[in-house]
Design goal:
By secondary structure, this protein is of the alpha/beta class. It has 14 helices and six strands. Strands 3-2-1-4-5-6 form a six-stranded parallel β-sheet, with helices on both faces. β4, α9 and β5 form a beta-alpha-beta unit. It is globular and about 50 Å long. The C terminus is likely disordered.
């Protein structure tokens, strides 16, 4: 592998502050909104559906702008990063891997992330690209900025429908991260197990995957996933399903 591209929410950044700020804006206890987010995740729905359950007529984008205008917009600092982020990214770069951060987020989120000066070669959000995951165009942009062939590019994320499946459909290698609500709840789903080239519990495992990727036998042993038989890729990519369509 030459390039590793990482998702943002619940891969690099904890969503605690995000949902707590929405709960405060809506005037509900954080645990109420948290429970509704969990229910949406378990049903394979968008997490933002939790907001619409509380406010059925809510326009989320309009509410976001209203929060920003009221001085209660997005905030991001070092405490929002998972503890393994800096050491993992630093080790990858030291190993000669190009590190890209590319995930769903606003233009403001991109500015805040870059202000943290992460050990990454590029940090970009969907808001800056004008296209969101799981749109195939997003992953076409990922392939462009990766600076490596798709088979030498690994996309890492927690969300099967937004990260894993569309990245695999684009021909990228994939690592499913058991982190956050989606990462934990869907980790053992058959589609996830079948599709992911690797399944990991921490970003620090990525350095070992890079070291072992020189031979298919080593990759199989390190990841616990059987190597894909030659010629099967097209078949597997063709039957990928979104978790939103499972139940």
């Amino acid at each position: 592998m030459e390039t590793i591209v990482l998702d943002i929410g619940e891969t690099l950044v904890r969503d605690d502050r995000h949902w707590a700020s929405w709960a405060d804006w809506l005037g509900v206890p954080p645990h109420t909104l948290g429970a509704l987010v969990g229910a949406a995740v378990a049903q394979g729905r968008e997490a933002t559906d939790a907001l619409r359950i509380l406010r059925p007529d809510m326009d989320v984008e309009e509410a976001y702008r209203a929060r920003a205008a009221a001085g209660r917009g997005e905030h991001l600092d070092e405490s929002d990063l998972y503890q393994d982020v800096r050491p993992a990214l630093a080790e990858l770069r030291a190993a000669g891997i190009r590190v890209v951060v590319a995930g769903n987020g606003t233009v403001r989120a991109g500015e805040l992330l870059r202000a943290l000066d992460l050990p990454a070669d590029l940090v970009v959000t969907s808001g800056e690209w004008g296209v969101r995951k799981p749109d195939p165009e997003f992953f076409a942009r990922v392939a462009e900025v990766a600076g490596a062939a798709p088979e030498a590019t690994l996309y890492v994320g927690d969300h099967p429908a937004d990260d894993l499946f569309p990245a695999a459909a684009a021909g990228l290698r994939t690592a499913h991260l058991r982190r956050g609500p989606y990462g934990h709840w869907w980790a053992e789903h058959p589609d996830v197990v079948e599709t992911a080239d690797f399944r990991i519990d921490a970003l620090t495992e990525l350095v070992g995957l890079v070291a072992s990727s020189s031979s298919s036998s080593s990759v199989s042993a390190a990841s616990g996933v059987a190597p894909e038989a030659e010629g099967e890729t097209g078949v597997r990519r063709g039957v990928l399903r979104s978790v939103r369509q499972v139940y």
